[in-house]
Amino acid sequence: MTTKHQLELTQVGIDFPTPKGPFTALRDVNLRINKGEFISLIGHSGCGKSTVLNIVAGLHQATTGGVILDNQEVNEPGPERAVVFQNHSLLPWLTAYKNVELAVKQTRNGRTKKEIKEWVEHNLELVHMSHAADKLPSEISGGMKQRVGIARALAMEPKVLLMDEPFGALDALTRAHLQDSVMEIHAELGNTVIMITHDVDEAVLLSDRIVMMTNGPAATIGEILSIELERPRNRIELADNAQYNHYRHEVLKFLYEKQRKVESVAAHRQKQSAVPKLAELKSDIA
Ligand SMILES: Nc1ncnc2c1ncn2[C@@H]1O[C@H](COP(=O)(O)OP(=O)(O)OP(=O)(O)O)[C@@H](O)[C@H]1O
Ligand SMILES: [Mg+2]
């Protein structure tokens, strides 16, 4: 029997036009994702993680290959692929409630006024934000804004939830709370999730599989690690779990040994000395 995947990235590559000619950011990215899977994308800064996510979101068009979601080719953004960005992109003139309501109304799935209200309230409840429904983004904290961003995405009932470093700008405690909320929501709703992160613990704690990307240009998938830890997962218990620590180690090894991205001190010095000192520039101007 063949299992049908919900989301398929096949030979995805992209060239960005630049003044110096095309820049190949990604090449031959192949990934099959099952319904309900939680996938993390991890890799060094600039390797192409957001580009992969944006191609799945339909915000960028692949130069080669393509993305198929439930037998349909992805060519443009759509409500079945909701995106949560790192810098919470709420509309500042709308309250938390109205921000979520707007997304619900845009999906136009024939809800009555009463049903819309209940659905917005339900989604704010999921992220524990009911108490601040009538506050403007400027009146709530970064973590709370991020919660509303997640509620807004969930309210669209996406088949796939795409999150680009959703907790990157948050302090460690807020981040831990939100990770727990996301795990609960994922357990309850069973959506497919693709999340970009730089945080190795976050990747191991949340994911079914961690997709590790090589450095660019022409970045691709280096390794995929399946995380076979029982759910629900508890961060405190896992801290002493040998299997958890093994997974952590595997990701760290990939990032810091196999895809090392550190300039040697000598190379760095050489570059520094190539930059004219401010005093020299000043004397040039004079
Ligand atoms: N529109 C564009 N035009 C030209 N080059 C681009 C464009 N978008 C991205 N790139 C290049 O593609 C590469 C991948 O960028 P991308 O933003 O996907 O990286 P990333 O892995 O998300 O990095 P970070 O972790 O810093 O967010 C980078 O070298 C970037 O400079
Ligand atoms: Mg990025």
From TrEMBL:
<comment type="similarity">
    <text>Belongs to the ABC transporter superfamily.</text>
</comment>
<dbReference type="InterPro" id="IPR027417">
    <property type="entry name" value="P-loop_NTPase"/>
</dbReference>
<dbReference type="InterPro" id="IPR003593">
    <property type="entry name" value="AAA+_ATPase"/>
</dbReference>
<dbReference type="GO" id="GO:0005886">
    <property type="term" value="C:plasma membrane"/>
</dbReference>
<keyword id="KW-0813">Transport</keyword>
<dbReference type="GO" id="GO:0005524">
    <property type="term" value="F:ATP binding"/>
</dbReference>
<feature type="domain" description="ABC transporter">
    <location>
        <begin position="7"/>
        <end position="240"/>
    </location>
</feature>
<dbReference type="Pfam" id="PF00005">
    <property type="entry name" value="ABC_tran"/>
</dbReference>
<dbReference type="InterPro" id="IPR050166">
    <property type="entry name" value="ABC_transporter_ATP-bind"/>
</dbReference>
<keyword id="KW-0547">Nucleotide-binding</keyword>
<dbReference type="GO" id="GO:0016887">
    <property type="term" value="F:ATP hydrolysis activity"/>
</dbReference>
<keyword id="KW-1003">Cell membrane</keyword>
<keyword id="KW-0472">Membrane</keyword>
<dbReference type="GO" id="GO:0015112">
    <property type="term" value="F:nitrate transmembrane transporter activity"/>
</dbReference>
<protein>
    <submittedName>
        <fullName>Bacitracin ABC transporter ATP-binding protein</fullName>
    </submittedName>
</protein>
<keyword id="KW-0067">ATP-binding</keyword>
<dbReference type="InterPro" id="IPR003439">
    <property type="entry name" value="ABC_transporter-like_ATP-bd"/>
</dbReference>
<dbReference type="InterPro" id="IPR005890">
    <property type="entry name" value="NO3_transporter_ATP-bd-like"/>
</dbReference>
<dbReference type="InterPro" id="IPR017871">
    <property type="entry name" value="ABC_transporter-like_CS"/>
</dbReference>
